[in-house]
Amino acid sequence: MTGTLPPDTLLQWLRDESGASQSALYYLDYPQFSCLLLRAVTGEADQRKRYWRTHCSDTATVEAIREAHGPFALPGHSITGQPEEIIAVPLRNGTYTIGALVHCFLGRVDCSFQDLQSQADARAGDWFNGWIEFLVAEQTRPLPALFHIAGAVSASLDLERVLLNVVEKATVLFRAKMSSLMLVSPQTRELELATAYGCSLEYLNKPNLPLDGSILGRVVKKNRVLQVYDVFQEPLYKHKSHAKQEGVVSLLAAPITFQNEVLGVLNIYSATPRRWQRSEEDLLLTFAAHAAIAITNARVHEQIIRMEEQLQVSSKLASLGELAAGLAHEIRNPLAVINMLIHSWKSAPPAGEDFRRDVEVIAQKITDLNSLVTDLLSLAKPRPLDRRPVDLEQLIDRLLRLLRHRINQQKVILRKEIRTPDKIVPVDRERIEQAVLNLLLNALDVTPEGKPIVIAIGREAEYVTVEIRDAGPGIPPDQVDEIFKAFRTSKPLGTGLGLPMTRRIVEEHKGIIRVSANHPVGAVFTLLLPRQAGE
C-alpha cells in the first residue's frame, strides 16, 4: 500500500493484515503526553461491540505505552465469552511515542509481536501527520461549544435551560463521565445543586454542601480552580456514596465568579483517575464565566420583575396609607365613644328586642371597620424596630394562652416542638408577636376539628426558625405567589392584609418567610429570624 493514507483507512488495512477482530487508534495528548485520546475504531460491524474508552488517563497504562519498545499485552476481560488477547503497539516518531494501536484478537494471535511493530513502523509518517491534524482539531474543538453557549446566554433568560446547556457541553467537551453545577444559597450559605448532566435521577436529590469543611466549599472560599485525583482518598469530599453510585473518580472544579463574588461551582468528573491539564482548567473557567453571566442576567431580570411588582404595590399602599392616616384621627375617636355607649346599652338596654339586635349589628360593623383601619395603618406606616433579646418559646406560650379558648372550642390538637436550645433572638417582641399571631389565626381558620397544629422552634445555619404547620387543605401551587399580595384573601370576612403584614415584619428583621404549600394536605409557614441583629 503506497501514498499518504488517512488514519481511518490505515487502521482498517492494519487490522486486516494483523488478523485482529477489532482495532483502535489512540493518540497521546500534547505537550503533557499524559492522556490517550481515541482517534479511530474499526472492526465493530461484524463483531460484538467493544467499549473503547474515548480517553485513557490511567497513569500505569499511559506510562507503559510511553516507555514500551515494542508490543505488549494489556490486561482486560472477555466480552464475547471466548478467549481474547488485547495487544498494544506503540506508535513512534523518532525517539518518542505519539500514540498506540490496540488490537483485540479472538483466540490465538497468529501475527508475531515483531510483525505487528513492523507494520506500524512502516507507516510512521502517516501516523505522525494524523497526530498533528488530530492535535489541531483538538485545539479548535472547544470553539463551537463556546460559541453555542455564548449565543444561548445572550438569547435566553431561562436560567435552568442555559445552565443545563453549560453542563451538557462541558461533559461532552471534556469527555467526562458527568458534570454538575452548584450555586451558593444566599440564605443558608450552602452549595445547592442547580443542575447536572450524565448522572442518575437519585443524584439530583443529593443534600446541600456546607462551605465549611467541604472540598467544593474550599473552591468558593479561595476562588480558584481545584482538582482531585481520587475523590475517595480526599477527606473533605463529602458525598463519596454518590460518587461510588455514579462511577466517578477524579474531579475538576472551577468557581463561577461575577465581579469578584463567587456564585457557585462548575464541576466535571471522570470515570477513571485523571490529572487535568492547565488548558483544561482554563477552558472550564471559560465555561464557568459563561454560567456566571447567565446567572447574573437571570437574577437581574427577576429583580426587575420584583421591583415592578413592588412599585405597583407601593403605589397602591401609598395611596391607602395617606387615606388611612387622614381618616384615622377623624374616625377612631368617635368609634371609641360609640363602642362605649353601645356596651353600656347592652348591659342596660333602653327597650325592645329589635333595638338590641340592631345594636349587635352596629357593634359588629364598627369592630370590623376599626380592625380594617388598624391593619391599613400597620401596613402603610413602618416604624423603627425595638430590638431586644426575646425567648421565642415564651413568646409562643403567651400567644397560646391568649388563644386557648378558641383552641378548646375548635377541639384542635396543639403540638409544640423545641428542636434547638437556641431560642433567644434579638427582635421587636410586639412585631414578631403580631407576625406569629397572624399565622396561628390562619392555621386555626383552616384546621378541622380533631386535627393537629404543630408549632416548632428550630435552627437553620445562622437562623432560628419558627415553623407553623396546619392540617388544612393546603395552598394550590398556582396561588403560592399570590398569598402575600395585599387584599388577596380566600376568607369571606378577611381583609387580605395579615400575610403581607407578616412578611414585612419578618423582612424588617432581615429574616425570611418560607411557605410549603403541601396541597392538598396542609401548609407549612416557616419564619427564619437571624440569631444576630446585624445578619
How is this structure best described in words?
The longest helix is centred in the middle third of the chain and has 70 residues, at 278-347. The chain is α+β, with helices and mostly antiparallel strands and 535 residues long. Helices cover 44% and strands 23% of the residues. α5 (142-155) runs parallel beside α9 (278-347) and α13 packs antiparallel against α14 (498-508). It has helices at 7-18, 59-67, 113-121, 124-140, 142-155, 159-173, 215-222, 240-246, 278-347, 353-380, 392-402, 404-410, 429-446, 498-508, and strands spanning 22-28, 36-42, 55-56, 72-74, 84-93, 96-106, 178-184, 190-197, 209-210, 226-228, 250-258, 261-270, 387-391, 413-418, 424-428, 452-460, 463-469, 512-516, 524-530. The protein has a six-stranded antiparallel beta sheet with strand order 3-2-1-6-5-4, sandwiched between helices. A six-stranded antiparallel beta sheet has the order 9-8-7-12-11-10. It has a five-stranded mixed beta sheet with strand order 14-16-17-19-18, with helices on one face.
Task: Break the fold down into its secondary structure elements and pairings.
Elements: H1 7-18, E1 22-28, E2 36-42, E3 55-56, H2 59-67, E4 72-74, E5 84-93, E6 96-106, H3 113-121, H4 124-140, H5 142-155, H6 159-173, E7 178-184, E8 190-197, E9 209-210, H7 215-222, E10 226-228, H8 240-246, E11 250-258, E12 261-270, H9 278-347, H10 353-380, E13 387-391, H11 392-402, H12 404-410, E14 413-418, E15 424-428, H13 429-446, E16 452-460, E17 463-469, H14 498-508, E18 512-516, E19 524-530
Parallel strand pairs: 14-16
Antiparallel strand pairs: 1-2, 1-6, 2-3, 4-5, 5-6, 7-8, 7-12, 8-9, 10-11, 11-12, 13-15, 16-17, 17-19, 18-19
Helix pairs in contact: 5-6, 5-9, 6-9, 9-10, 13-14
